[in-house]
Amino acid sequence: MKTFFIFLSVIALSFSAQAQYKKAVLQASGLTCAMCSRATLKALETLPFVDKIDTDLNATSFILHFKPNTAVNIDAIGKKVEDAGFFVAKLVMTADFDKLKVTNDAHVNYAGQTLHFVNVKDQVLQGEKDITIVDKAFVSAKQYKKYSEQVKMACYKTGTMADCCKPSGSAASKRVIHVTI
Fold first, then answer.
1. Which 3-state string (H, E, C) describes 50-88?
2. CA-to-CA distance for 119 and 123, rounded, in angstroms?
3. Domain assignment present for 148
4. Is 91 in a helix, a strand, or coil?
5. What pLDDT, in 10s, does the model give residues 151-180?
6. How many CB atoms lie within 10 A of CB 176?
7. Are 135 and 122 spatial neighbours (Cβ–Cβ below 8 Å)?
8. What is the span of the domain harbouring residue 30?
9. Number of domains in the chain
10. What is the DSSP annotation of 92-155?
11. For residue range 15-66, what is the model confidence (pLDDT) as tens digits?
């Protein structure tokens, strides 16, 4: 029995290693000078899953390149920007998909996270694709209102699985990340 669980763990790790975010383009709002950009850059550089960061000061954007086979914490990215005193205006993640079937207003597991696809056509994602994070802390109030009108599940307002599916155990408070293509 112990061998069986070890085997399942190895299989799960091999699948999770394949599903990965490659990079992100983060547009920050509230940056008014070079020192603001530098403070945000310094905060983002402390993220353990970031390999390197390129900047585009004209677009107030940061291109975060992630370390291979390392879990990416999307909420930590937003928190670092807020801790530096600014806001996330837009976060676009480049992910490497392997025949991931997505449907509108539905949950999908990807890279150890639960993604909730909003305002998308049913499709199968293959290869590198950009997905935009549309949670409240990652979009404007106007965009948040627009997306909230397109979602039937309560998790868009709360960000947790418990409000959608009422699963038992630790998954009840599992974070749901809302995205669009």
1. EEEEEEEHHHCEEEEEECCCCCCCHHHHHHHHHHCCCEE
2. 12
3. yes
4. strand
5. 888 888 888 876 666 544 444 578 999 999
6. 22
7. no
8. 18-180
9. 1
10. EEEEEEEEEEE-TTEEEEETTEEEEE-S--SEEEEEEEEEEE-SGGGS-HHHHHHHHTT--STH
11. 444 568 999 999 999 888 888 889 999 999 999 999 999 998 777 799 999 9
CATH number, domain of 69, equals 3.30.70.100
In a domain, 71, yes or no: yes
The Cα 33–Cα 41 span in angstroms is: 13
Amino acid at 86: F
d(CA 167, CA 40): 37
Examine the pLDDT at 107 and tell me if it is beyond 60. yes
pLDDT digits (tens, 9 = 90+) for 119-149: 999 999 999 999 999 999 999 999 999 999 9
pTM of the complete model: 0.84
Q: What's the full length of the chain, in residues?
A: 181
> What is the Cα–Cα distance from 28 to 20, expressed in whole angstroms?
23
Mean pLDDT of 64-82: 96
Q: Is residue 123 part of a domain?
A: yes
Closest CA to 107 of 144, 138, 77, 151: 151
Neighbours of 102 (CB within 10 A): 22
- Take residue 39 and report the two structure tokens written for it: 């403070």
CA distances in angstroms from 102 to 10, 31, 71, listed in the order given: 26, 35, 21
